[in-house]
Task: structure prediction
Amino acid sequence: MKKTLKQTDLKIYQALQGEIKRQKEGLELIASENYVSKAVLEVLGSVFTNKYSEGYPGRRYYGGQEFTDKIEKLAIKRAKKLFQAQYVNVQPLSGAPANMIAYSAVLEPGDKILGMDLSHGGHLTHGHPATLASKIYNFISYKTEENGEINYDKLEKLALKEKPKLMLAGFSSYTRQIKYRRFTQIAKKIKAISMIDIAHIAGLIAGKAVSNPVPYFDIVTTTTHKTLRGPRGGMILAKKRFAQAIDKATFPGFQGGPHMNNIAAKAVAFQEALSPSFRKYTQQILKNAKTLEQELKRKGFKIIFQKTENHMLLVDVYNSKKITGKQAEDTLDKIGITVNKNIIPNDLRSSLDPSGIRLGVPAITTRGMREKEVKKIANWINIALENYKDKEKLNSLKKEVIKLCRKFPLPS
Result:
């Protein structure tokens, strides 16, 4: 007789049920998180997890690849259509590996990379000293201006001075759009390879809510979750001339066998992203993010980079509400709103207890929430952070959060 998970491993079963309840009854405002469809979950937990598929379709090192070849080819075909890409590799296990693979495909140890400063919105893999990438490559950082924008004239001067081999665009907490043409023109001027990390905005690009950088850049890396609403994973898109180098850098350079259950789930998510409903979803993300920005501004919150032009906000809670980023994260957790603490440009506080929090609306938009609900959420955030020591008030807010979540169930 087959045993259920509950019978096989009660502790894991209990943790799973707890997480299901947390997701159902809480508001997910972490900008890098989302909810996948039941179809994506179904194939993610499928028998494809049993199969080793080192190599590429038609060029595997193991037998029995008839169906794995089919799903990988489908994933590539759909990704190419979504992003108008010449070449796609769907094997990277996540975003950080995708970046490391891309670097190693075109650079030698010690080569210089010009990327966005972490405190101004860049990602850890864009040059943070604690990462492996920074131990291999020489990173130079650029920053944003007081008005929240990138000064491309300054960027050009820095590029001309430093002459990096690779110029890197993209971000983890930057809320404005990048001028793709201008950025790549600078790279061409110094004969550098241009690369952009679109992990956060890949879904917005696929849904045509924001413009597509793929035609402009030599190499594009991304995750397949976040706004793209697929399984946790990575992907690399590039011009054809980089295809062989990236394939080799992926396998055998950086990874062994790809996770075929994950690639199958990516293919399903890409098909979903090609639908008209996905376009409507990404347009609503922008509306919800703008509404959250406007409501928080009205309540006295300082919005970093002055505004949002994508799915997220970076908010200075320390200088606007006299509460630290960690205190804000912990307080909102108590009422069922999940956010993450985040450093802000030139933050004087530590990364473990910074001045800011990062907020994102993809997950609540997936649940069907619109501007009306976002206004309520902004109000609850304000009340909670202004009364973070008031247990009674926080308990009352939690009940309101649960009530709203029950009106907007998780994807079925």
Q: What stands out?
A: The first strand starts at residue 27 and ends at 28. The first helix runs from residue 5 to 8. The chain has two domains: 41-273, 284-407. The radius of gyration is 22 Å.
